[in-house]
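Rotation project, supervised by the postdoc (A.L.). Task for the rotation student: set up a whole-complex structure prediction and record inputs and outputs verbatim in this book. Inputs entered:
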Amino acid sequence: MRRIANVVRLQMINRQTFIWTPLIILVGATLLSVFVYAMIPVDTPKYGGAANAPLWYFLAIGIGAMTYTFPFSQALSITRREFFLGTMLTAVLASAFMGVLFLLGAGIEVATHGYGVNGYVFYLDWLWEAGPFGAFVVYFTLALGLFVLGFTGATIFKTWGLTVLTISWVVVALLLIGLVFLATRLGWWGGFWEGVMTLGALGLALWGLVVIAGLMGISFLAFRRATP
Amino acid sequence: MTAVIEVQDLTKTYKDKNALDRVTLSLEPGAIYGLLGRNGAGKTTLMSILTAQNFETSGTVRVFGEHPFENARVLNRTCFVRESQKYPDDATPRHAFAAARLFFPNWDQALADELIGEFQVPLKQRIKKLSRGQLSAVGVIIGLASRAEITFFDEPYLGLDAVARQIFYDRLLEDYAEHPRTVILSSHLIDEVANLIEKVIVIDDGRIILNEDTDAVRDRAVTVIGDAAKVDAWASGRDVLHRDALGNVASVTVLGRLSAAERAELADAGLDLAPVSLQQLVIRLSQKAGTPAETEEVR
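Outputs recorded:
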């Protein structure tokens, strides 16, 4: 357990990666949005998707954790299991940190009436239907999901090579297209959107966590045979 | 003494190439081993498998009596920094040493600090911006300061200048004398490490072709120096490994041990005996082992 905690410390040793860079991206994207909002001459509330900017960075740190930090962890004689658990724990903590930032941002928006220009990046109606907890879970899940996606992709690449990685993507794409095809043929779309609306953002995020758990399982299996 | 590393019939196959071919080895604790061989001979693959960084295709691997894969009890006591070691993106040497300190139970921070000064490692510069020599120094410092019971050094001298190399060799011997452990030093520059290593393992094309005490290996041949005509006359009919000449002085290395009578005979003829170059010997022994004798060069 101590060694797993040490892997978290290893991942956090350069605080730039998990804390400062996402924070800078988030603040930067928000500022840009505020300036843009200030230029739009309407009185109704203005909404934007700038908050997703740092999430994509989580895809990159997921890949980096596998391609750079994993080989280093091998030089430090860390077992693969310890590294995997410690890294996932780090991702959970960093994603929770992002969730808290999201709540703080929304708090600022509410308090300042949309930065004084009635513009919103965090306080988006649909995400906040289930209250602060719901909004937190949604943002947390997106960050964690992208990290795990990056990590899993990089692991499959390192363990089995580019061909298998490409085939995996093709298979996933085919499955999705197949579902779309079925839904169109069988006329499921009405029910689908109804379902999405009933689930709400929180419900979708919770299903997202189930998918993430599955991805983690796949990546652990691939990771056990990975070589630096 | 019981062996710290025991390997039997270890084979590693990449697609259709055998990187390691039925390797059988046993390493005793408390010695400095030289793992010698050409580039691509299988040195790094062997060390990777011993530290569970890579996987064997077949054969048995025992380190401290157990298989190292996912085995913290074993891995805790070993350290293997690769020649092409990767570090976290944007990490600095300071980060790397702080991380190493977290995981090696015998880590000696005072030693690490001294070595950082001696190798002049820039602590705050990003590792990916370091020169090849500075990068090697980071690996060397982690290896030495880890004080792991089994420490592997993978071509540690790459890019280091003559002064830094000497620092490494001196500090390794010094620290090894105070804290005996098993050191495996991989190298393709044999003479460079010849004075450091107590045991020689030569690997060629995935096969172990020599595993002996360095002194025993040296005893397998002699170098005779003196008047060229006399030396050549003495050497004729013998298995000559190497011949050098300068003016009318020649130096000839021949395979085989000398009897006391032969030594006396040499002394009477006014010929001198000199230490044998391990490199010449290893090259020749490799060729004798049936490997293609395409070049004289091991480098």
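Student's summary: Residues 162-178 of chain B form the longest helix (17 residues).
Supervisor addendum: The radius of gyration of chain B is 21 Å.
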